[in-house]
Amino acid sequence: MDTLTHLIGGDAVTGERTLDVLNPATAQAVRRLPLADAAIVQRAIETARDALPAWRAMPPAKRAQVMYRFKTLLERDAQEICALISEEHGKVLDDAMGELKRGIENVEYACGVPELLKGEYSHNAGPSIDTWSNHQPLGIVAGITPFNFPAMVPLWMFPMALACGNAFILKPSEQSPSAANKMAHLLHEAGLPAGLFSVVHGDREAVEALIAAPEVKAMSFVGSTPVARSLYEGGTRQGKRIQALGGAKNHAVVLPDADLDNAASTLIGAAFGSAGERCMAISVAVCVGDETADALIERLAPQARAMSIGPGTEPGHDMGALINASQRDKVAGYIEAGASAGAQLIVDGRTHPLVESSPGFFMGATLFDRVTPDMSIYRDEIFGPVLCVVRVASFEDAIALINDHQYGNGTCLFTRDGEAGRRFADQIEVGMVGINVPLPVPVAFHSFGGWKDSLFGDLHAYGPDAVRFYTRRKSVSQRWPERSAQEAAQFSFPS
Fold it and tell me: 479-492, pLDDT tens digit by residue?
């Protein structure tokens, strides 16, 4: 069994505490992972501090060249990276490749950093006074990333942070760590100077050390809402800039005029792709009218039953395993709770043959009908392959239902009515909206983020907001008086 290491300043660093990394499809350990203590975190900080001045002073165009080379290397080794993702997370290879490609888009965006860092200039803002502003790096920043997107979410963070002139410490999920190490090696191959990017594996102890360290100026996090809230509160108390993305309960509204065949097919992918372990997964279908709901269920049920489920590393499957036994049991518990609460269980994922016959953490696609807002399967983020159908009487009721939920990450509407689409986009209290687009994840040159309990902090992930998050603005006013001029004392900006 392979043993991973921390990667600090280009050096492999081990530790006394270790953890086994499991393949969810087999429940077998595939790697042993060291867990960092505060001393290892501090070593990464000190290494970054030493490397930072030269990188900060480097022209942005030269920093961008590193990102260009890094992008090429990610594409070269894409198959290897996807195999690591599938082995440790459980998602199918096609899904892993889709994840990586969306991450590469963010590297491409970071390659444009010379343009993005351009400031503003005013000539003669006052008499012979010129004023300009620029974006300056924060210094040492950190990212804490989740198990479900071991490549894409880190690629949301560190390419732009590095391109802006910062040093970056990545603490990936201890359940799917290998993609982070692979990307660190590719950054080194791309020419990133040693010390500017470190991978520190660990658990709560490593996270708390990053929060406590005064040298770490900003932290970006993706995970559950309770942890996001706690990290945001703890980090801001330390004076850090915090961006913390939390949980979700994403709704799809289906109007009577929608193309139901298309809606059903796309909802299957949006609900059950990656075994539902996505913060953008559609877990609730809100049908306006009983006829719409009946027709949608008629189309969803056979597709849910027909899904091919198996090890993600084997080509041809639609859905792989859940991340661990605890998550599988949690999903099974929610299915039982939904049935007990009175929801109509149309397709029961617990009956899939792999649930009992495989040592892995499998759960079949599950479909509920007649779910009500008081049920736990509606309120809570299940993070598994469970799709709930809720019936409402009107379009207005659908909007009110979504706006009343604690989460506001993503949502979508299926309709042929342009006016309804416009109203929905305008009135819905959700950060990311799709109109006939089931997974409205913004492209790299926009920014990703929800509302309400789905995001803590003022700035969204990647895109233009990433430049704002990883830099701070400095304004300079300059004047060169004439040598012969004798000026009197001034008590305001000259005009």
Answer: 998 876 566 677 77
Residue 494 lies in a domain: no
Mean pLDDT of 362-373: 98
Residue 458 has a pLDDT of: 93
Do 254 and 241 belong to one domain? no
Check if 279 is active-site.
yes
> CATH number of the domain that 162 lies in?
3.40.605.10
| Candidate list 82, 279, 287, 412, residue with the active-site label | 279
For residues 109 and 242, membership in a common domain is answered with yes
**Does 448 map to a domain?**
no
Interior angle at CA 158, CA 460 and CA 71, nearest 5: 115
Flag whether pLDDT at 400 surpasses 80.
Answer: yes
Q: Which domain holds residue 198?
A: 2-246+454-476
* pLDDT, averaged across the chain: 96
Q: Is residue 99 a contact partner of residue 85, using CB atoms and an 8 Å limit?
A: yes
3-state secondary structure labels for all residues of the chain: CEECCEEECCEEECCCCEEEEEECCCCEEEEEEECCCHHHHHHHHHHHHHHHHHHHHCCHHHHHHHHHHHHHHHHHCHHHHHHHHHHHHCCCHHHHHHHHHHHHHHHHHHCCHHHHCCCEEEEEEECCEEEEEEEEECCEEEEECCCCCCCHHHHHHHHHHHHCCCEEEEECCCCCCHHHHHHHHHHHHHCCCCCCEEECCCCHHHHHHHHHCCCEEEEEEECCHHHHHHHHHHHHHCCCEEEEECCCCEEEEECCCCCHHHHHHHHHHHHHHHHHCCCCCEEEEEEECHHHHHHHHHHHHHHHHCCCECCCCCCCCCECCCCCHHHHHHHHHHHHHHHHCCCEEEECHHHCHHHHHCCCCCCCCEEEECCCCCCHHHHCCCCCCEEEEEEECCHHHHHHHHHCCCEECEEEEECCCHHHHHHHHHHCCCCEEEECCCCCCCCCCCCECCEECCEECCCCECHHHHHHHCEEEEEEEEECCCCCCCCCCCCCCCC
pTM exceeds 0.85 for this model = yes
Same-domain status, 289 and 171: no
In the prediction, which pLDDT does 482 show? 80
- pLDDT value for 427: 98
Lookup: tokens for 67? 């990102």
